[in-house]
Write a structure and sequence with these properties.
Strands 3, 4, 6, 7 and 8 form a 5-stranded antiparallel β-sheet that branches. A 3-stranded antiparallel β-sheet has the order 1-2-5, with no helix packed on it. It has one domain: Immunoglobulin-like, CATH 2.60.40.10. The protein has 1 helix and 8 strands. Strand 3 and strand 4 form a beta hairpin. It is α+β, with helices and mostly antiparallel strands and 122 residues long.
């Protein structure tokens, strides 16, 4: 009987992980905030299932792969999907005209899909 319960528990856990999948960057907006700094509003969608599997961060990444800023998400958003969070004061080097927004979740790591954002005024 314990073996059967273990199998059922594994199936339930697996279904939850599969349903959540990777986090998706739905939208991202950038605005200049002076002296080479930018603010970002990023909308993510993820099937957060609780503390063990949720979207826990998004990054602003330069074309060369340098992480320019990160917005850490400290809790799951199970009942708030999709959701938008901001990050300000991101210093972007002169000459960089686009950045990449990538998202991360606790199970899958960085999502395979990212969103490229053109910086206003560049």
């Amino acid at each position: 009987m314990r073996g059967l319960l273990a199998v059922i528990a594994m199936i339930i856990f697996s279904v939850g992980v599969v349903q959540a999948g990777e986090v998706t960057v739905v939208d991202a907006k950038a605005r200049a905030s002076g002296s080479g700094a930018f603010s970002f509003d990023v909308t993510l969608k993820h099937g957060d299932t609780g503390w063990d599997h949720y979207a826990d961060r998004w990054d602003v990444v330069a074309p060369d792969g340098t992480v320019l800023g990160s917005r850490v998400l400290y809790h799951p958003h199970v009942d708030e999907q999709p959701f938008t969070r901001g990050l300000s004061g991101v210093s972007v080097p002169d000459g960089v005209k686009e950045v990449i927004i990538r998202a991360h979740d606790k199970v899958h790591g960085n999502s395979a899909a990212a969103l490229t954002v053109t910086l206003p005024g560049r």
